């Protein structure tokens, strides 16, 4: 904690005192019982995901403000729900906190979480605050999904189109600009800000779910249970495609020129650096979806221009990056080889 | 960790390696997606609770085996569900782990959790494993409850009977016997084992929920939404009564002689020591319920003989411990005064 010694510390108000201060981030009717109560829609499946973030391992005051750490923690969990096709119901926050931490740091962390959650109408419904030598945040997010529209890693079928809901590589570029500001000397302020914002305030793509539902309904496909495949790209675009292919026992052909990239990249980075960040940067929190072509085309048409069909699922179980312009040789992407190749 | 240096450590197999080993504790269809999927019953409310446990703060190899730490962590969360009247659907486990921890320690922890969860047919549906300087376990449990039968701290009404589902003080006595074995020199092995087991393997009182439901159904009360009040006694019997009274804006009269206590206590402890452990010992994970007298009487009749009606909710907002045998003066219980009085 780089907080002033004059600031009130958690140990001065205790866990109960801190809990009192955090109550303003929860709906009033959620406070006081052994557990939170929520209403779910009938005929929906319950979707649950959990993440643990440790200070010094997953976040640090050196690179991330507490507000941004809070936003990113909430966004990562909501992104996991989006990746399953689920609408969020709420999150619980388990906080293990060092007594020397400034109370204001914890409040800023919750403010950042809340800023993200409010965009997606998601309440903090419960939690726990305990003392610990190391600040640790455990978030469990739960949501609900139509059982016929759950997006799974195992559902990709040969012939499906591979859709990305937006740009990849921006979050990594933003982080690099924060760590090495001189990297951005040839970028405009607006370009730098866009990339840094992509790192600090990533947006979980819950916004695409109603559009996807609408397409499935209007195609009379909602009740016929077309398998939908996908996951989020929190660990990178290449990771998402490879994981989906592994779990679905299929392969993929990705067309290099079709992958949307940050507009600042071409005049700023070498093609090698650009494709490394796009494929392996991670933390863009976009969705990588594998869908029947007709649905994929409707989806891309209705989403903003940053979404795109970038390839096809194949029977052959390799993940190939191809370049129909002929500028680059075909490559087979493996997670480990990929990383080695690009480093 | 008091583990041998020869044992395999978490850092040797990594987080992914550890996750692979822990998969055997999860249903196979839960593994691989961004989130877990569960079916819920229609017309039920979703109930969610979360707890964070930190090594050295909430558990320690010095007093608790990893199996017992796992059992107690699972039991505490299931008890929170029971306290709301909810049947468990599953738990998620977020594990932050020091790389020097023995892999076998983590497996024993999960074995203990699983041993407890299996009794209550509750799966581990998801989780996260990350590295951290300090071993930390975050559990989120979720269950479902009939919206008309949710047990809340705010629902106690003057005239309600106060029911305890079992004995209090045993878990505290068991812990003291583990810390100071010479304390038990006048106890039989069977008495010692019963008390120690109460500390190591507490049982969440999910078993009473079907009985309570049955009574409400047969009284035609299920659909008329009689307010049910209660919570678990994880922080002690006195704490539970005081919290319920505070949240319901009522008071209580507790009849000292009606509180079920461990059979070993009268010939072993002074009356002062005995009532201290019974009221303030904590971690017995019984339920303290406040119910209309008719329902309370039926419930106590159907539960085992260790349950009892111990008092009444009053309009007057004090919590009084009274002794109709005249051996002890009446006392007003406050959380802080109570602790001071008894220490």
TrEMBL record, chains A, B:
Mg(2+) 5 binds at residue 235. Residues 190-322 form the PurM-like C-terminal domain. GO terms for molecular function: thiamine-phosphate kinase activity. Pathway: Cofactor biosynthesis; thiamine diphosphate biosynthesis; thiamine diphosphate from thiamine phosphate: step 1/1. HAMAP family: TMP_kinase (MF_02128). Keywords: ATP-binding, Kinase, Magnesium, Metal-binding, Nucleotide-binding, Thiamine biosynthesis, Transferase. Mg(2+) 3 binds at residues 34, 80, 232. Its EC number is 2.7.4.16. Catalyzes the ATP-dependent phosphorylation of thiamine-monophosphate (TMP) to form thiamine-pyrophosphate (TPP), the active form of vitamin B1. This is Thiamine-monophosphate kinase. Substrate binds at residues 58, 283, 339. Coiled coil: none annotated. ATP binds at residues 110, 127-128, 153, 234. Belongs to the thiamine-monophosphate kinase family. It comes from the Bacteria. Mg(2+) 2 binds at residues 51, 80. It is an enzyme of class 2 (transferase). Residues 32-144 form the PurM-like N-terminal domain. Mg(2+) 1 binds at residues 50-51, 128. It comes from Floridaenema fluviatile BLCC-F154. Mg(2+) 4 binds at residues 34, 49, 80. The keyword Chloroplast does not apply. NCBIfam families: thiL (TIGR01379). Reaction mechanism of ThiL seems to utilize a direct, inline transfer of the gamma-phosphate of ATP to TMP rather than a phosphorylated enzyme intermediate. It catalyses: thiamine phosphate + ATP = thiamine diphosphate + ADP. InterPro entries: PurM-like_C_dom (IPR010918), PurM-like_C_sf (IPR036676), PurM-like_N (IPR016188), PurM-like_N_sf (IPR036921), ThiL-like (IPR006283). Gene3D superfamilies: PurM-like C-terminal domain (3.90.650.10), PurM-like, N-terminal domain (3.30.1330.10).
């Amino acid at each position: 904690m780089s907080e002033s010694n004059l600031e009130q510390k958690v140990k001065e108000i205790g866990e109960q005192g801190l809990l009192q201060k955090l109550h303003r981030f929860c709906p009033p009717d959620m406070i006081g019982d052994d557990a939170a109560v929520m209403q779910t829609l009938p005929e929906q499946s319950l979707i649950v995901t959990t993440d643990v973030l440790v200070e010094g391992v997953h976040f640090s005051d050196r690179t991330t403000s507490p507000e941004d750490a809070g936003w990113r923690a909430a966004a990562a969990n909501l992104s996991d729900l989006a990746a399953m096709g689920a609408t969020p119901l709420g999150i619980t926050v388990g906080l293990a906190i060092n007594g020397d931490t400034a109370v204001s740091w914890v409040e800023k962390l919750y403010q950042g979480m809340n800023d993200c959650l409010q965009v997606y109408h998601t309440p903090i419904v419960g939690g726990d605050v305990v003392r610990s030598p190391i600040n640790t945040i455990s978030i469990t997010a739960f949501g609900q999904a139509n059982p016929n529209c759950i997006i799974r890693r195992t559902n990709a079928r040969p012939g499906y189109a591979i859709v990305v809901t937006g740009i990849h590589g921006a979050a990594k570029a933003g982080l690099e600009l924060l760590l090495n500001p001189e990297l951005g000397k040839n970028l405009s302020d607006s370009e730098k800000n866009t990339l840094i914002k992509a790192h600090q305030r990533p947006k979980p793509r819950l916004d695409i779910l109603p559009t996807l539902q609408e397409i499935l309904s209007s195609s009379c496909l909602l009740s016929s249970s077309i398998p939908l495949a996908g996951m989020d790209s929190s660990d990178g675009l290449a990771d998402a495609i490879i994981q989906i292919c592994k779990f679905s026992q299929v392969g993929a052909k990705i067309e290099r020129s079709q992958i949307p990239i940050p507009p600042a990249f071409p005049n700023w980075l070498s093609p090698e650096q650009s494709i490394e960040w796009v494929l392996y940067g991670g933390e863009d929190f976009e969705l990588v979806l594998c869908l029947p072509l007709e649905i994929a085309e409707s989806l891309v048409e209705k989403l903003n221009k940053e979404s795109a069909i970038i390839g096809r699922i194949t029977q052959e179980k390799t993940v190939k990056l191809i370049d129909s312009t002929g500028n680059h040789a075909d490559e087979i992407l493996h997670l480990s080889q990929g990383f080695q190749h690009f480093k």
